[in-house]
Amino acid sequence: xxxxxxxxxxxxxxxxxxxxxxxxxxxxxxxxxxxxxxxxxxxxxxxxxxxxxxxxxxxxxxxxxxxxxxxxxxxxxxxxxxxxxxxxxxxxxxxxxxxxxxxxxxxxxxxxxxxxxxxxxxxxxxxxxxxxxxxxxxxxxxxxxxxxxxxxxxxxxxxxxxxxxxxxxxxxxxxxxxxxxxxxxxxxxxxxxxxxxxxxxxxxxxxxxxxxxxxxxxxxxxxxxxxxxxxxxxxxxxxxxxxxxxxxxxxxxxxxxxxxxxxxxxxxxxxxxxxxxxxxxxxxxxxxxxxxxxxxxxxxxxxxxxxxxxxxxxxxxxxxxxxxxxxxxxxxxxxxxxxxxxxxxxxxxxxxxxxxxxxxxxxxxxxxxxxxxxxxxxxxxxxxxxxxxxxxxxxxxxxxxxxxxxxxxxxxxxxxxxxxxxxxxxxxxxxxxxxxxxxxxxxxxxxxxxxxxxxxxxxxxxxxxxxxxxxxxxxxxxxxxxxxxxxxxxxxxxxxxxxxxxxxxxxxxxxxxxxxxxxxxxxxxxxxxxxxxxxxxxxxxxxxxxxxxxxxxxxxxxxxxxxxxxxxxxxxxxxxxxxxxxxxxxxxxxxxxxxxxxxxxxxxxxxxxxxxxxxxxxxxxxxxxxxxxxxxxxxxxxxxxxxxxxxxxxxxxxxxxxxxxxxxxxxxxxxxxxxxxxxxxxxxxxxxxxxxxxxxxxxxxxxxxxxxxxxxxxxxxxxxxxxxxxxxxxxxxxxxxxxxxxxxxxxxxxxxxxxxxxxxxxxxxxxxxxxxxxxxxxxxxxxxxxxxxxxxxxxxxxxxxxxxxxxxxxxxxxxxxxxxxxxxxxxxxxxxxxxxxxxxxxxxxxxxxxxxxxxxxxxxxxxxxxxxxxxxxxxxxxxxxxxxxxxxxxxxxxxxxxxxxxxxxxxxxxxxxxxxxxxxxxxxxxxxxxxxxxxxxxxxxxxxxxxxxxx
Length: 951
Description:
This protein is mostly beta strands. The protein has eleven helices and 44 strands. It has a 22-stranded antiparallel beta barrel. It has a five-stranded mixed β-sheet with strand order 3-6-7-4-5. The two termini are 56 Å apart.
């Protein structure tokens, strides 16, 4: 259904409303009932099922699922996209837009991106993550103090402003809590690794209703232990029979290379040797894989390089190493959160002061560094010398198979080697965040009418710093150590480095160097006034007026060392080019919202907001919604709204980063129209251009139009069902397209392919740009039923599902839309799964209650590596479809002990592994055989939570 048709249906619903049956008494205004502000609206009203789909998740529901972090909660939401927004998706080497996103985990509603999802705390904004400054870090949310979470499944730019295109998540904290409560939680996997724990203490004193004041304080600490890839058997990138294998010949026992940097043992010219009677030039040769060798798999983590799968015939005698097993599947996280809130009631007015603070430490760990011949890092002086203890053994093994190299005896050996003695690379990011808020709300009488007001002033910040840990070494110092011959890069099974070699490598460590850091600051003043302005026969017309004044500030520093004392560190992803002194922008907004009861059955809500952005001018975004209930058992709802998102500071001001593309899956589209690597076709060999990424200060805002149409059906008190059809159209989308997409649309991106005088492809410009259009359409459905057994026990069943109907985009306004992105693998961004659901069965009897829950994610079409794509090889067990992912959780709750509540559970009862998926990226060497955007790698685990109330 197209967007215009949705809008027409909304209009039709409104037109037939006057003939509707009277609404039941529950929807009439009852001044004795407490009015509340519901996420998605600024008008205080009686809580009921409204015109906008809002999912409310209670504290008990969160605890019953064994959830202790905001990231865990968001991962269970069907409305949340499957993007690279969680810590598991950023635990390895990253490139492009993902660079510098260390330590952050974000929400991504309806797959619109983390920067198009608004995260609120008690209805107000918090600072975005200090490192990139584009989205809120979920780790900063004080989950131990959360009373409920409201998820608005609709755009809200007309109410909240920019970045509310995908929806809004509002974490609402406890209020007027009295007592002292301690809670402890543990989640232990049946297999080793990945333990999760949290301890919290919450105290509340005073009673707003009887004493006129309340003070609340919460302190919590949680830890997620690391889960390494080699702790789970499903992480295995050496599965050529299924279409995946490792494309890195940086191995613990090195591969020997020919290079143009200097004459070497393997070649004086840079072209590898040939076998007698063969024309294939071999390069990247391992002693283990030569005839009579011990075999690549004789060393843990290594395997034979699959030259057919990667369509690289000259690599037939090479070994590879599984980088996926070295990366953590769950990053270790230490998180401390604190909350303090004081509320005072003076008459009907409430004054409050609130402070929230967090300190989060996250460590990403992945494969040890690879040493490769390079003019800028490891030139001829680092090659293995003829004086090295292993030189003759290497020569003898090579010359036996390649007799033509005998004349090169005495020349140094160039190699590619994995420095295991350097240790796994580690980047530790510490983020400190806080928000201080003062405000007031209550009734106000103006011109004889009573209104509700709300006013607040807040200042929030998030400051991050990334520190190098193990696995990073000073380049020149390490080069000199290697060139001395003391280190043996060609260890055979059972051999180890000498202590002198280990000590020499350790002396080059750069652990402790601050890589970079960033800080975002948000200062906000907001005020709103809402209430009845006049009455119609069907009821009171309600209106809200408000203003929102914000200043957003951001700064990013690069290498903190003195410019004169910055020795190079091997492969440390410094971002000095993106160093940015403090930049800021002011946002001034006014908005209005009106609720009109047209008849007893129909109410319309109109909203409009005007934002004035420094550097972008003003934008006005409207919204209209309706709620139509012709009979008590049936309710229709719908909305139409427009949105706006200004580019982030990074997207505007980042410098240009140059990165060599080293994968083997790109072919020059000018000489290879198919864009697929195929060595048997002239011009279709793999190319390795430099990739340019970064910001552009000429970027404009992206805009959105969206609509929804839904129905809620409740024929009886114990049953209800709902369905909501929605569509989002984004224009002028701010995108950074990957090389594969640009090659597939070469005619549109031809200017971004930079060539030398001879026409050879040298660079691809992937910097941010305002592109064309993206359309996303889906259907969200739900049903639930409750009842009682004769013994007095209560049961319930329910399901909430999300069906993606359309997901497509075009690179420019004049281009054709590309193929559907539903159920199709994409390297980065949102993975469009066709169907997702969560279903549950609950049972409560006396002091006991329990829940069985099912989480389901549909499969999709997998990635295809070059050899399979070109048809040169068909793996024996190849399946282009990734299986569905379905897991079950079981929890039981007991409240029979005085002041003590116990909750025990089993997650992933059937111990389902993530389905096999080809996520390996030959450019970065990241990824393996499972998809972190979809699945949980921990397997079956056991949870226990104990909550004790002292008073």
